Amino acid sequence: MLNRRDAIKLGSVVGAALVFPARQLASAFSDDPPRVPPFSVPLSIPPVLKPTRSTADTDYYDMRIAETDLEILPGIRTRTLTFNGSFPGPTIRARRGRAAVVRQVNGLPGPATVHLHGADVLPSSDGHPMDPIAPGQARVYRYPNDQRAATLWYHDHTHHLEGEQVYRGLSGAYLLSDPVDALLPLPGGEFDVPLVLRDAKFDSRGQLVFVPDDFMNRPTILVNGRPQPYFEVKRKLYRLRLINGSNLEVFRFRLSTGATFLQIASDGGFLRVPAVRQEIDLWPAERVEVLVDFRSVPQGTAIALQNVAALSENKRDILQFRVGGGGPWSKSESVIPDWNRARIPLAPGRIPGWPANDPLRGNVTRTRRFVLRLDLASGQFVINDKGFDPDRVDATIEHGSTEIWEIVNDDAALGIQHTMHLHLVQFRVLDRNGRPEPAYDSYPKDTVRLFPGDVVRIQATFDSHLGRYPFHCHFLDHATHSMMGQFEVVPRR
Q1: SS3 144
Q2: In Å, what is the CA distance from 489 to each residue of 75, 102, 125, 131, 148?
Q3: Distance separating alpha carbons of residues 76 and 374, to the nearest angstrom
């Protein structure tokens, strides 16, 4: 019998084939890419972008968006879209209390827009889809970094182009730390590693092939821009920042040895209580931070990070950890126990100084309902039966208000999955189909998963900036096809 996961996979395939049959078939029968055996190339770590100058409270950066030929598959140059010539883009390591000002120069022949996903910023720096940088022009984005430490990421958000331009490479990690959190005994330096994961399709010449909504025919998994690489690790504790930078790919991570992860953070920052996890779901745009413990693993062991939700067997193996020798001692080694050996849960009291985060504030003033579905007549993905209209505001919200949004995936018959991402705010997922969401998946979140038929309630407080911001499905190919709306925060009457 089919379990729920298998049924969702089958439904997704059937739903997509009903809507885009010609394009799907053309992609499926296109020429095959050069084959790269799993775990045959080393993992690359994106470069950390250095400020061009700094003041007492601000770091200034310069980036250029351009077409670049890079080696993704061994021995082949692939035309990509890049930030500063890097695929994915360079990592920005920012610090709470210090603003980051990023000047983006658009060297593409068409428009580009940069959105810092998960950031609390003014509308002028949000990277709204209708606020592009013209070819040859520059735009300055100011990020105040006045929010909790978190793994954020930046990506293109140009209206009708975001799906293709992110797919071709326009994304990167933005890691925000807090000086207070430096007291936590967490791995740092070479043991704090961002992993940007995504899928792709290459043709026989090794060039990226983009066909909208073609999730069934993107057979190559990339980690930091490398196909199913290996990562040489030491017998240490590692902090891995997992970022799903794909348009459509759904991951359910598991370690091949059966070892567990210690999840310490979600989209918007640290969990209230770290969670020991056997499997971790990560849908497009979601992030998690996990600790993986190699301290007791024998030297020479190989452990695979796997996607047990992969639609094909060749996409199951994601990344191979090759365990080497030891490394320099760190304070986390003596403070954080080996939870796989002890089989004990971890709580904040077991990690000295762990932050206690209280997500709920304010009284709920309004409940709204948003229904996501595919309109078969128009071929558009819509919210409340409407495609995106940049002149329409779908929700007017008084500053300081706390609201509950009920979000419905009305594509149960087609088996199509969706997500919902709100710009500007982090929210709490209250419940899913009437049942409370597990704590590790409830807060702090800016993107929520929606299985076919799901009804999910989220709660958010809009108490930072005034202005107009998007909300949309972060299956980016769906957003490109109009599954997006806008809310506007206005002064309280």
Answers
A1: coil
A2: 50, 25, 16, 18, 21
A3: 38
Reading the block at residue 175, the tokens are 């890691």
Q: What is the mean pLDDT of residues 386-396?
A: 98
Q: What is the CA angle 367-424-279, rounded to 5?
A: 85
d(CA 218, CA 316): 13
pLDDT digits (tens, 9 = 90+) for 50-75: 999 999 999 999 999 999 999 999 99
Rg of the chain's alpha carbons, rounded to an integer?
22
Residue type, 284: P
What the chain holds in terms of domains, given with CATH numbers, is 53-180 (2.60.40.420), 189-350 (2.60.40.420), 364-490 (2.60.40.420)
Q: Spell out a b/e string for 464-486, using b for 16 or more CB atoms within 10 Å of the CB, else e.
A: bbebbbbbbbbbbbbbbbbbbbb
Does residue 447 sit in helix, strand or coil? Answer: strand
Question: Which run of H or of E encompasses 6?
Answer: helix 4-19
Residue 102 near residue 63, CB atoms below 8 Å: yes
| Strands in 22-170 per DSSP E | 53-54, 58-71, 77-83, 89-95, 99-106, 114-117, 138-143, 150-156
For 425, the token pair is 């705010």
Q: What is the mean pLDDT of residues 177-199?
A: 92
Residue range 282-303, pLDDT digits in tens: 999 999 999 999 999 999 999 9
Q: 11 falls in which pLDDT band (50, 70, 90)?
A: very low
Residue 98 exposed, middle or buried by CB count within 10 Å (0-12, 13-18, 19+): buried
Q: Is the entire prediction scored with pTM above 0.90? A: yes
Q: Count of CB atoms within 10 A of residue 192's CB?
A: 16
Q: State yes or no: pLDDT of 127 exceeds 80.
A: yes
Largest CA distance in the chain: 65
- DSSP H/E element including 273: strand 269-277
**Confidence grade of residue 8 (pLDDT, cut at 50, 70, 90):** very low
* pLDDT, the chain, mean: 91
The phi, psi pair for 18, rounded to 5°, reads -65, -35
